[in-house]
Specification:
This protein is α/β, with parallel strands linked by helices. The chain has 2 domains: about 210 residues, Quinone Oxidoreductase, Chain A, domain 1, CATH 3.90.180.10; about 160 residues, Rossmann fold (3-Layer(aba) Sandwich). The chain is about 30% helix and about 20% strand. It has 13 helices and 16 strands. The strands form 3 sheets. Strands 3, 5, 6, 7, 8, 15 and 16 form a 7-stranded mixed β-sheet that branches. Strands 11-10-9-12-13-14 form a 6-stranded parallel β-sheet, with helices on both faces. Helix 5 packs across helix 6 and helix 10 runs antiparallel to helix 11. The longest helix has 20 residues. It is globular and about 60 Å long. It starts with a helix and ends in a 6-residue tail after the last strand.
């Protein structure tokens, strides 16, 4: 007999073929009986070109999302959150690669991707399911991180693949839940997928997190502590209390003295997880345990920058050369060098949800904005010095 976990994975993998499915579409009254998408609209924040916050536009007549594939669900968005990727996408960063992923046939047509709805995180309620969706049903409270090449969550409704969605932790409100999926999955991608850490092998590992006070950093701390690692974090002094509250074993304030000098007084690390880029990769050669399987992973990579500047083919070639040279350089010193990329995963969110409900991970919400103030939320994030997440409350209810 299949276990519950195995059954979930099976249900998540069905219906991945590309044949369209026709279902009843919600009408203006949000019932499930109007079949014409032309008669359905919703409010959303969109951009019609790339630029600063001035390009954000509130559109009450955005077309309602449509289920195209049998493994998709429509989610009524209760809350979303703003991530750095949203600011970068608003500016046009990664447009070349993302447009190819959206629709390769249109990638050479200027402006064919617009209007774009930004927003990656969603916490909400399932409204409708495709024919192959068995693990979810209408009315389920769910959370998810929608990948950047899909229309986002700064809207009343969003379509997501069932493979990207997970049942929301019972211990969280929608506002709290919306703060976690994208950053938790990004931390998961770096620590688990790139560095090979997992619950069974993590106890006793020494991990250094550079840039720990933002959304990804706060999620990484809690994930690692839930798995028994020793966590050292690098941040400014103003974040020290938060870092201690989240369970960090050692806090380094980079503003008080040279980071290199402070690291010299610590034991060597098994894993270095970088959220800021710059010269941090040079630290790996000095402060990771050589020839012991130690890994350095950075989330700040030149891949999208290269494809934007040089085109897809040349950009990928340049990125591959850069990565290869860094891998060899570090491997010669006995260190594994990795790039980390966000990976959407409902099964990973299932595990993260269990950690949350066990009381070993909590959302870190710095500020909540109403749906009408999305541009102000962008301003808040761009101001820097984040101490957690900026959340958008789409539905104005006590959650």
């Amino acid at each position: 007999m299949l276990s519950v976990a195995c059954s979930r994975c099976l249900w998540r993998t069905v219906g991945l073929h590309k044949r369209p499915v026709l279902i009843a579409k919600p009408g203006k009254d949000r019932g499930l009986h109007v079949s014409s998408v032309r008669n359905t609209i919703m409010p959303a924040w969109v951009i019609d070109k790339y630029g600063t916050n001035d390009v954000l536009r509130f559109n009450e007549n955005t077309l309602f999302p449509v289920i195209h594939y049998p493994n998709e669900v429509i989610i009524q968005v209760h809350a979303a959150s703003v991530n750095p990727i949203d600011v970068h996408m608003r500016n046009g960063y990664g447009a070349a690669s993302l447009n190819m992923t959206r629709d390769p046939l249109k990638m050479k047509i200027p402006g064919s991707e617009f209007p774009i709805i930004l927003g990656r995180d969603v916490s909400g309620v399932v409204m409708e399911c495709g024919l192959s969706v068995k693990y979810f049903k209408p009315g389920d409270k769910v959370w998810a991180a929608v990948p950047p090449w899909k229309q986002g969550t700064f809207a009343e409704f969003v379509v997501a693949s069932a493979n990207e969605v997970s049942l929301m932790p019972k211990s969280l409100s929608h506002t709290e839940a919306a703060s976690l999926p994208y950053v938790a999955l990004t931390a998961w991608a770096g620590l688990v997928n790139s560095c090979g850490l997992k619950k069974e092998t993590c106890p006793g590992k020494r991990v250094l997190i550079i840039g720990a006070s933002g959304g990804v950093g706060t999620a990484a701390i809690q994930l690692l502590k839930a798995w028994g690692a020793h966590v050292t974090v690098v941040c400014s002094g103003g974040a020290q209390t938060l870092m201690n509250d989240l369970g960090a074993d050692d806090v380094i304030d980079y503003t008080t003295a040279s980071l290199k000098d402070q690291l010299k007084t610590r034991d060597l690390f098994d894993v270095m997880f970088d959220n800021v880029g710059g010269t941090s990769e040079e630290l790996a050669l000095q402060y990771l345990k050589p020839w012991s399987g130690a890994s350095y992973c950075t989330l700040v990579t030149p891949f999208l920058y290269n494809t934007d500047r040089m085109g897809i083919a040349d950009g990928m070639m340049r990125s591959g050369f850069t990565l290869g040279s860094k891998v060899i350089k570090h491997l010669c010193k006995g260190i594994h060098y990795r790039w980390g990329f966000f990976t959407n995963s409902g099964p990973a969110l299932d595990e993260i949800g269990e950690i949350v409900d066990a009381g070993k991970m909590r959302p870190v919400v710095e500020k909540v904005f109403p749906f009408s103030d999305v541009p102000q939320a962008f301003d808040k994030l761009e101001a820097g010095n984040a101490r957690g997440k900026t959340v958008i409350q789409v539905i104005d209810l006590k959650q």
